Every structure is written in C-alpha cells, then in structure tokens.
C-alpha cells in the first residue's frame, strides 16, 4: 500500500466543531478516569473528527496543521478529556515531525497512514527508563538495538509509555549495539516498532493522581525482531555529544501545555455550573448572583486569559519569524503551567468541600491540571537555563 491509497479524515477546525468534539469526549471522561482504561471512545471521536492525523503532511493527504491550530486542537481535546489529549499530542507531534523532516522509512510510514485511515493509530516516543528517569535531564538509555544479519533485535525496559496497548507504533529510544560500532560513543536513535510486534509486554504500573486514562505504563521489549530500516539515528552535536531535544522547549512542545489550557477551561465551566445550581437556604438564590463568586469567576478567567495569550502570542511571534522568542519558550511554558494550575486551584478553593468531592468534576480537573508540571523541560531546569542566559553564564 502507498500513501496515495489512504484517505484520512478531514478535520474541521472551526471553534464550533472543536467545541462539539470536546463535549462528546467529555461525556466519557469521568468513566475512564475511574476505570483507568484506554479511552477508546474518546480516541474514536478524535479520530473521526480528523484530529489525530491533522498534522500529517499535505503530500500524504493530511491537513498539515501548524503549531497554532495544533494547540487549538489539543486545548479542545484537553477540555474534553486530557488523557485523550495527551495521547493525541504525542501522535500529532510524531506526524508533524515527519511532515517537517521526513525520517520514517517508507514502509513503516505507509503502514502508519494505512492504520490511521481506518481507526485511531496513536504513536509515542518511548524514551524514559526506570533507572534513567527523564531523558531531558541527560544520560543515555540502557535499551539496546542489537545489529543482526537480518536487522535488529530490541531489548529494554521503558517507563511512562503513554498510550499503552492503544499504540500503533512505539518510537523507542535506544543505543545501537553493533559489531563495528564505537563502544565509547555508540550510535543513538529511535527504533520504529509496530505495537503488535511479538516480544512487547506491558506492565500496569500507572496508578496516578491525574491523567489516569492515559495508560502511561511501563513496557519491556524482549528479543523484538525488526528489519534493518527500523533504526533511525539521532545525530550527535558538532562536539560529538548527544543532547536530548526535549531539554529545551520548541514550538511543538507547547502542544503538551496547550491541553492543560483545556483542563482549565473545563474547570471554569464546572465552577460556573455549580455556582448557578447552588442555592443555600440562608441566601435563597444561586451563589452565582453574589459578588464574591462573581469576583472568583473573574479571577479564574484572568488566569485562563493569561495562559491563552502566552500560548498563542508565542506561537504568533514564531509564525512571524521572530526568532528572539525561541530562547524564552521554556519559561513561557512554565508561565502557562503556573497560570492554568492557579486557575483551577482558585476555583476549587472558592467552593471548598464540594469541589474536592469525587462526585464533582472540579476534583478531577484539579488532579489532571497538576500533571502539567511533569512535561519537560520542567520548571527547575527551565528557570536555571533562563537565568544563566540572562546572566551570561
């Protein structure tokens, strides 16, 4: 099968269409949060709307959406179910990377597009390891791709592999073990692994506070056999040192933080719904009519407006070719994260006990929004790098 044989769903990126998708996905979000199962219904909705393949290159039949529209998509999905949005974010980033810099071998890419035409086909870069932690903090993986006469054999243990059994493709960060390789400076790359390949075992390790349905489990690869083209090398720097691309925020990495803007929007709506429905006996009218609650609603809106303005302002500057914003993207990401967390915490604090009950959606939104802090580059490294840049260190 070739790329011309597939017909991908066409995305409707109007505000109304994205809002409708968010609303439909939200209908099952609480259920998947409770069960921690793969959010198959939410992923199916996103697929039908063309939102899982929106960044596929036009030359392959996709819409090739840019960073701003991708951020709009992820904010909408995050408003519906951030677990769906996180799986989608990783998938959209993979397609966008391929659109900008073709590096997947044709056979693998054709297969991914064929799967994407008939149903959800999530992709994720499987990089973290139990001993190594986040790759953005340095180090090389223990996972190895051993060269054989027929191709490669992959062995290793990965952590935080978002998407779980739903993944159509794993993009596994590994070190090449080659007979003629340099043991002191082995080649590093990503191994493209179809999710149904023998030798893949999932371990149910994800029992998390938030994004419970993201299925960010551990996975092991034992003797996974792959063809020669499955290994895609990641070049080292001019100084011969490998540097992880996630250590510094780029336009694509703002997609992860965008989904939490959606979580904050969902919290704003939940706050408003409660304020209109809550009628204390002593007050005799909805608390939404009081200046206290109106002021809180305004403050929640302030923090969301700040997050949205930072997100889209940065992306607009990049679209305009302002390269001066590039060094600040990591701290802009930190500022957006702080804003969305504050928005949700403000709503929860104002409502008190009801907002902390598992029967109220604000409790789920609070748990979910806190996960924004774990996406690299994390706050401490972003601030340190910015400080050294400012001080010339």
Number of helices: 10
Instruction: Name the helix and strand elements from N-terminus to C-terminus, one letter apiece.
Output: HHHHHEEEEEEEEHHHHH
CATH topology of the largest domain: Butyryl-CoA Dehydrogenase, subunit A, domain 3
CATH class of the largest domain: Mainly Alpha
Give the CATH architecture of the largest domain.
Answer: Up-down Bundle
Terminal residue distance: 53 Å
Q: Which sheet architecture does the biggest sheet show?
A: 8 strands, mixed
Unreliable residue runs: none
| DSSP strand tally | 8
CATH homologous superfamily classification of the largest domain? Butyryl-CoA Dehydrogenase, subunit A, domain 3
**Number of separate domains:** 3
Basic shape: globular
What is the SS-derived class?
A: alpha+beta
Comma- or semicolon-separated keywords:
10 helices, alpha+beta, 393 residues, Butyryl-CoA Dehydrogenase, subunit A, domain 2, Butyryl-CoA Dehydrogenase, subunit A, domain 3, 8 strands, eight-stranded mixed sheet, globular, Butyryl-Coa Dehydrogenase, subunit A, domain 1
């Amino acid at each position: 099968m070739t790329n011309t044989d597939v017909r991908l769903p066409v995305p409707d990126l109007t505000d109304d269409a994205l809002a409708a998708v968010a609303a439909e996905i939200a209908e099952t979000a609480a259920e998947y949060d409770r069960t921690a199962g793969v959010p198959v219904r939410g992923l199916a909705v996103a697929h039908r709307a063309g939102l899982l393949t929106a960044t596929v290159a036009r030359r392959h039949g996709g819409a090739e959406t840019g960073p701003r529209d991708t951020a709009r998509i992820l904010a909408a999905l995050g408003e519906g179910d951030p677990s769906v949005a996180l799986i989608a974010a990783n998938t959209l980033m993979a397609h966008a990377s391929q659109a900008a810099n073709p590096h997947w071998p044709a056979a693998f890419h054709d297969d991914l597009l064929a799967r994407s035409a008939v149903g959800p086909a999530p992709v994720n870069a499987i990089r973290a390891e139990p001993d190594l932690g986040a790759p953005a903090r340095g180090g090389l993986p223990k996972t190895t791709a051993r060269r054989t006469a027929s191709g490669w054999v992959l062995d290793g243990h990965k952590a935080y592999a978002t998407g779980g059994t739903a993944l159509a493709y794993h993009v596994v960060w590994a070190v090449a073990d080659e007979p003629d390789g340099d043991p002191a400076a082995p080649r590093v790359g990503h191994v493209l692994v179809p999710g149904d390949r023998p030798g893949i075992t999932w371990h149910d390790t994800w029992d998390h506070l938030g994004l419970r349905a993201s299925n960010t489990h551990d996975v092991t690869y034992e003797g996974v056999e792959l063809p020669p083209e499955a290994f895609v090398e990641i070049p080292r720097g001019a100084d011969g040192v490998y540097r992880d691309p996630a250590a510094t925020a780029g336009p694509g990495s703002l997609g992860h933080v965008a989904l939490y803007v959606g979580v904050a929007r969902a919290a704003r709506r939940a706050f408003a719904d409660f304020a209109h429905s809550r009628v204390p006996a002593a007050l005799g009218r909805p608390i939404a009519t009081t200046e206290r609650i109106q002021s809180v609603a305004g403050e929640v809106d302030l923090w969301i407006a700040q997050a949205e303005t930072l997100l889209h302002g940065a992306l607009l500057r990049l679209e305009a070719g302002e390269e001066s914003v590039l060094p600040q993207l990591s701290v802009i990401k930190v500022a957006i994260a702080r804003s969305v967390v504050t928005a949700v915490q403000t709503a929860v604090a104002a409502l008190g006990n009801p907002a902390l009950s598992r029967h109220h959606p604000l409790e789920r939104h609070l748990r979910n929004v806190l996960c924004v802090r774990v996406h690299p580059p994390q706050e401490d490294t972003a601030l340190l790098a910015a400080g050294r840049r400012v001080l010339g260190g």
